[in-house]
Amino acid sequence: MALKKRKPRTPGTRGMTSIMYRGVVTTNKPLKSLTKGKAARAGRNSFGRITTRHQGAGNKKKFRDIDFLFNKKDVPGRVEHIEYDPYRSGFIARVVYRDGERRYILAPQKLGVDDTVVTSVDAPLKPGNRRPLKNIPVGTFVFNVEIKENGGAKIARSAGNYAELSALDGGYALLKMPSGEIRKVVDGAWASIGEVSNPEYRLVNRGKAGRSRHLGIRPTVRGTAMNPVDHPHGGGEGRQGRGTKRAKTAWGKPSGKGQKTRAPKKYSNVFIVSRRKVGKRRKGN
């Protein structure tokens, strides 16, 4: 699959790129029994207050019910279609199992129509098949990884992502996460073989603000363009530095740019073997 470059016929299409779905997505009609409406929250909680900024509007879309629990074990399934999902960056696969049931799963790379997938302790080591981590060879790329056994897939689910199984030791599997962090997960947790589809998603250039609005993404205002009452970086005449040693959010908390933002006493700190690298990467590192 490749990116499609648009001709600069208008200012909005200059530099604009998009995913070439033709040849990958095999149908544009989702299965009605596995779709439902979902109210747009626009980043607001039950009190109507904004808790996630820069969300709102966008095209109406239907939610696809994706199987992350994979509780249908030892039953082979055949891939009927590869489909687009408006709620996620990777593609999804519609699978019909031998008993006639149909489910949606995240589609890995190199999975096509009529391929077979199965969840089993001795499933073949093919993309889309699912095994416990202790039954997967060290060095294998996995996605849709559980944190605890039969708890549902939580790790490595977005387009092009995967975790690398680095080691098996003392009832735990060591996973190198997409962020570079090395983390311990119980070796009885299940994971799918392969990498999530649509890796070119991160290379897309939307080209114009309107395309982001169609996706439900509202504008982002720089903190340095605000007043001091609205943001720690605000105020001053003309353009100038932020005036503080560390970058901050609008509420004064440390933000990215090489700063550690993880809670010091988070419950899962004991499972982290090596922290992810933060900040600008220096030459030679």
UniProtKB/TrEMBL annotation:
<dbReference type="Pfam" id="PF00181">
    <property type="entry name" value="Ribosomal_L2_N"/>
</dbReference>
<protein>
    <recommendedName>
        <fullName>Large ribosomal subunit protein uL2</fullName>
    </recommendedName>
</protein>
<feature type="domain" description="Large ribosomal subunit protein uL2 C-terminal">
    <location>
        <begin position="125"/>
        <end position="254"/>
    </location>
</feature>
<dbReference type="InterPro" id="IPR012340">
    <property type="entry name" value="NA-bd_OB-fold"/>
</dbReference>
<keyword id="KW-0689">Ribosomal protein</keyword>
<keyword id="KW-0694">RNA-binding</keyword>
<dbReference type="InterPro" id="IPR014722">
    <property type="entry name" value="Rib_uL2_dom2"/>
</dbReference>
<dbReference type="InterPro" id="IPR022669">
    <property type="entry name" value="Ribosomal_uL2_C"/>
</dbReference>
<comment type="similarity">
    <text>Belongs to the universal ribosomal protein uL2 family.</text>
</comment>
<dbReference type="InterPro" id="IPR022671">
    <property type="entry name" value="Ribosomal_uL2_CS"/>
</dbReference>
<dbReference type="Pfam" id="PF03947">
    <property type="entry name" value="Ribosomal_L2_C"/>
</dbReference>
<dbReference type="InterPro" id="IPR002171">
    <property type="entry name" value="Ribosomal_uL2"/>
</dbReference>
<dbReference type="InterPro" id="IPR005880">
    <property type="entry name" value="Ribosomal_uL2_bac/org-type"/>
</dbReference>
<dbReference type="InterPro" id="IPR008991">
    <property type="entry name" value="Translation_prot_SH3-like_sf"/>
</dbReference>
<dbReference type="GO" id="GO:0019843">
    <property type="term" value="F:rRNA binding"/>
</dbReference>
<dbReference type="GO" id="GO:0016740">
    <property type="term" value="F:transferase activity"/>
</dbReference>
<comment type="subunit">
    <text>Part of the 50S ribosomal subunit. Forms a bridge to the 30S subunit in the 70S ribosome.</text>
</comment>
<feature type="domain" description="Large ribosomal subunit protein uL2 RNA-binding">
    <location>
        <begin position="43"/>
        <end position="119"/>
    </location>
</feature>
<dbReference type="InterPro" id="IPR022666">
    <property type="entry name" value="Ribosomal_uL2_RNA-bd_dom"/>
</dbReference>
<dbReference type="GO" id="GO:0015934">
    <property type="term" value="C:large ribosomal subunit"/>
</dbReference>
<feature type="compositionally biased region" description="Basic and acidic residues">
    <location>
        <begin position="230"/>
        <end position="240"/>
    </location>
</feature>
<feature type="region of interest" description="Disordered">
    <location>
        <begin position="222"/>
        <end position="285"/>
    </location>
</feature>
<comment type="function">
    <text>One of the primary rRNA binding proteins. Required for association of the 30S and 50S subunits to form the 70S ribosome, for tRNA binding and peptide bond formation. It has been suggested to have peptidyltransferase activity; this is somewhat controversial. Makes several contacts with the 16S rRNA in the 70S ribosome.</text>
</comment>
<keyword id="KW-0699">rRNA-binding</keyword>
<dbReference type="GO" id="GO:0002181">
    <property type="term" value="P:cytoplasmic translation"/>
</dbReference>
<dbReference type="InterPro" id="IPR014726">
    <property type="entry name" value="Ribosomal_uL2_dom3"/>
</dbReference>
<dbReference type="GO" id="GO:0003735">
    <property type="term" value="F:structural constituent of ribosome"/>
</dbReference>
<feature type="compositionally biased region" description="Basic residues">
    <location>
        <begin position="274"/>
        <end position="285"/>
    </location>
</feature>
<keyword id="KW-0687">Ribonucleoprotein</keyword>
